[in-house]
């Protein structure tokens, strides 16, 4: 409420209250006099009505004073007198009865007419209800937070004279208005009187609370007779201290040479300090509310107000918090500039180094980030956040052991450091130490039971250990806590795929896409699910969309290429594999799959080159050794094929197909016993491999073991439905008769 409106209401209420009391008193006195002298024995309706009118005016005046914040004894008296007078007057009219006699019979009757008594009854009911409603409404409004940030300025006057000889109040108000012009959320109110030393802090806070002010600026000055030095008392009271607000010394007394007090320079400097404190405090309120633009605007208003150090609140604080607001707005260059300035003003401001290091990390300047973290540690060895920030950089750089060491130290310094447990768990996850990762996620969830990301990542760790049901349970909890968590739906879909529940996986991928329509990974994984169901057109459509959303999505190119190869569209497949390799030259799977297509097209040398490249990039790539061995067999290079099969078996001892193919290579080289041994192993792993029985039968035939050969050919007829293979087996059996 504007100050002028408040003052006008107060004036009207005060005048109305005086008039109301006069009218009420007049009505009561007149009624009593008339009752004593009158013949009817009751006051006239006019006089009673005058008294009730006075009581109503008293009540209205009291409520008006209450609503504008005048919560004092006169206000309470006006309300009490108004309610009591109105209720008493209405009750008198409604219940008053008089005696009358007719023919020696005395009877009683109402003293006032039915209409008057009905009006009085309505008054008896309505006045308490309306009064209670007004008081409840006042209490409710009083309890609401103010719509604006109110800065209340009391008059600065010379003690003993009641005058502002140096116009300090006017100068302060003018500068405050100029500085805060354009900010619709700030309201400047003028108290219109001095808060004296006798009123003190208690009086200042009482005035501020009455007007719902966030800040009260007050003070006074005095010049002893004949003195050349003045005493200036300046006070800045923050009634609603925002979160993160640095502690303030709310008042100070200065001894100023009289000549300085009379100078404009001193008044400008003092008013500048108060404006700086006001704008900074408002900015901190917006900072706490995460209104970063508003905070930046207020801090920017505060900083130019004074170029000198403000003893109660250093300028470095404004630069620091404005830098943090810029950081939150991703305006990294300005944030760094502000942190630089804060450090220049206060070289031991550890928090500024720490935050600047965080920005350097976001900018990819990792060495600078580490240097700032280490400078923070030097200033404050117990600053857990510095170790945490350096650990984040180390983790990103792949220096896992160093990252773990720093997270350990952060947790030692702050045992309930939730994010440190979570991040250390992420490092263990990357290292494949899943049990340790799960233990850290457990601790993070214990400390913060609604930590959605911890449930998601613990689910990932369980999935890595093939504990898919537990993984799904964690994803369920993450989704319960945060239904819009698209990543949880994506990961749960992956767990359902591992369990063979493809339809449920697709449902989760659909939900992830609904929640996040530009989620390329969800389209890619749904494409994979469709491919598993041989729904190739839907799979290609999803890969297309994933690539549209993320043009450098190498996995999607490879996935689409695999489908094209399956459909016999080899040129399209090669194009996709080439694109993946161009984007990621170290992508072993792209070379491998291109090798498969080349092999299908009998481009043997290109296939071998691609398999070799895949093996160079991924030395444990079992399938690449196996398929390169197959190409060598087609070329008749059986020794090379056997070398590749040896390597594949060393990596995967239960790889049945490799034993079968190596046995065939031995067979082609005339090493029949070695061939038989490999066929035996292949059959042990896959008893239904009809082709292996056929090849072993051929080998037994060459060794002259016709009975064993015949048994193998008959086994082919028992197992195989392939007409060509069956014809071969029947021909061999017929030739042996």
Characterization of this structure:
With 737 residues, the chain is an alpha/beta fold. It has 4 domains: 3-143; 148-313, Rossmann fold; 491-683, Serine Threonine Protein Phosphatase 5, Tetratricopeptide repeat; 688-737, no CATH class. Helix content is 70%, strand content 7%. It has 34 helices and 8 strands. The strands form 2 sheets. Strands 3, 4, 5, 6, 7 and 8 form a 6-stranded mixed beta sheet that branches. The chain has a two-stranded antiparallel ribbon with strand order 1-2. Strand 1 (97-102) and strand 2 form a beta hairpin. Helix 1 packs antiparallel against helix 2, helix 17 packs antiparallel against helix 18 (452-464) and helix 24 (554-566) runs parallel beside helix 26 (588-600). The longest helix is centred in the first third of the chain and has 35 residues, at 3-37. The chain is elongated and about 150 Å long. The termini are far apart. The mean pLDDT is 87.
Proportion of helical residues: 55-70%
What's the CATH topology label of the largest domain?
Serine Threonine Protein Phosphatase 5, Tetratricopeptide repeat
Provide the CATH top-level class of the largest domain: Mainly Alpha
Structural class: alpha/beta
* Overall geometry: elongated
Rg over C-alpha atoms, rounded to the nearest angstrom: 45 Å
The count of β-strands is 8
The CATH superfamily of the largest domain bears the name Tetratricopeptide repeat domain
> What is the averaged pLDDT score?
87
Taken as a percent bin, the fraction of beta residues is 5-15%
Our count of helices gives 34
* Biggest sheet architecture: 6 strands, mixed
Quote the distance from N terminus to C terminus.
115 Å
> Which architecture of the largest domain does the CATH hierarchy give at level 2?
Alpha Horseshoe
């Amino acid at each position: 409420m504007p100050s002028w409106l408040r003052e006008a209401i107060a004036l009207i209420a005060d005048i109305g209250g005086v008039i109301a009391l006069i009218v009420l008193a007049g009505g009561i006195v007149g009624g009593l006099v008339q009752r004593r002298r009158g013949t009817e024995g009751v006051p006239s309706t006019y006089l009673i009505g005058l008294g009730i009118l006075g009581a109503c005016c008293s009540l209205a005046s009291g409520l008006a004073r209450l609503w504008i914040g005048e919560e004092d004894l006169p206000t309470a008296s006006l309300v009490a007198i108004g309610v009591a007078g109105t209720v008493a007057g209405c009750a008198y009219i409604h219940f008053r009865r008089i005696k009358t006699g007719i023919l020696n019979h005395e009877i009683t009757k109402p003293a006032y007419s039915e209409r008057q008594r009905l009006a009085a009854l309505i008054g008896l009911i309505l006045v308490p209800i309306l009064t209670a409603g007004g008081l409840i409404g006042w209490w409710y409004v009083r309890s609401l937070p103010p719509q604006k940030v109110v800065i209340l300025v009391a008059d600065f006057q010379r003690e003993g004279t009641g005058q502002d000889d140096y116009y300090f109040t006017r100068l302060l108000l003018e500068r405050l208005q100029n500085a805060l012009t354009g900010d619709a959320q700030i309201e400047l109110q003028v108290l219109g009187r001095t808060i004296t030393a006798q009123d003190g802090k208690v009086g200042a806070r009482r005035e501020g609370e009455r007007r719902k002010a966030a800040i009260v600026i007050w003070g006074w000055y005095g010049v002893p007779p004949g003195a050349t030095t003045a005493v200036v008392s300046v006070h800045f009271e923050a009634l609603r201290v925002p979160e993160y607000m640095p502690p303030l010394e709310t008042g100070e007394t200065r001894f100023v040479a009289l000549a300085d007090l009379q100078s404009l320079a001193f008044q400008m400097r003092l008013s500048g300090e108060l404006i700086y404190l006001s704008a900074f405090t408002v900015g901190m309120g917006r900072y706490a509310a995460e209104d970063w633009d508003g905070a930046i605007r207020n801090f920017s208003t505060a900083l130019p107000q004074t170029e000198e150090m403000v003893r109660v609140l250093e300028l470095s604080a404004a630069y620091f918090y404005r830098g943090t607001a810029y950081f939150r707005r991703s305006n990294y260059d300005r944030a760094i500039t502000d942190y630089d300035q804060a450090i220049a003003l206060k070289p031991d401001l550890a928090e500024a180094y720490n935050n600047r290091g965080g920005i350097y990390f976001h900018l990819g300047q990792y060495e600078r980030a580490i240097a700032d973290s280490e400078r923070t540690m030097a200033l404050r060895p117990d600053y857990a956040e510095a170790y945490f920030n350096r650990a984040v950089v180390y983790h990103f750089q792949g220096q896992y052991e160093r990252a773990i060491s720093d997270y350990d130290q952060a947790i030692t310094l702050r045992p309930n450091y939730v994010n440190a447990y979570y991040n250390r768990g992420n490092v263990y996850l990357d290292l494949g130490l899943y049990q340790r990762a799960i233990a850290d996620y457990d601790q993070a969830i214990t400390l913060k039971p609604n930590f959605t990301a911890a449930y998601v990542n613990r689910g990932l760790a369980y999935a890595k250990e093939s504990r898919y049901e537990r993984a799904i349970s964690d994803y369920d909890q993450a989704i319960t806590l945060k239904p819009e968590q698209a990543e949880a739906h994506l990961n749960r879909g992956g767990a359902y795929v591992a369990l063979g529940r493809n339809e449920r996986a697709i449902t989760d991928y659909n939900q992830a896409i609904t929640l996040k329509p530009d989620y390329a990974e969800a389209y890619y994984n749904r494409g994979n699910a469709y491919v598993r169901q041989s729904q190739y057109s839907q799979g290609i459509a999803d890969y297309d969309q994933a690539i549209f959303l993320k043009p450098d999505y190498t996995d999607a190119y490879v996935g689409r290429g695999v489908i094209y190869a399956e459909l016999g569209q080899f040129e399209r497949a090669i194009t996709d594999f080439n694109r993946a390799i161009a984007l990621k030259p170290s992508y072993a799977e792209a070379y491998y799959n291109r090798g498969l297509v080349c092999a299908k097209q009998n481009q043997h040398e290109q296939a071998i080159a691609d398999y070799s490249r895949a093996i160079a990039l991924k030395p444990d790539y079992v399938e690449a050794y196996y398929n390169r061995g197959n190409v060598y067999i087609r070329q008749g290079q059986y020794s090379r094929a056997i070398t590749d099969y040896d390597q594949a078996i060393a990596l995967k001892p239960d790889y049945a197909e490799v034993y079968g193919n190596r046995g065939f290579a031995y067979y082609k080289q005339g090493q029949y016993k070695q061939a038989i041994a490999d066929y035996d192993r292949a059959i042990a792993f896959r008893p239904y491999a009809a082709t292996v029985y056929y090849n072993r039968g051929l080998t037994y035939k060459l060794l002259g073991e016709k009975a064993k050969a015949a048994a193998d050919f008959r086994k082919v007829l028992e197992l195989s439905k392939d007409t060509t293979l069956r014809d071969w087996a029947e021909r061999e059996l017929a030739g042996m008769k």
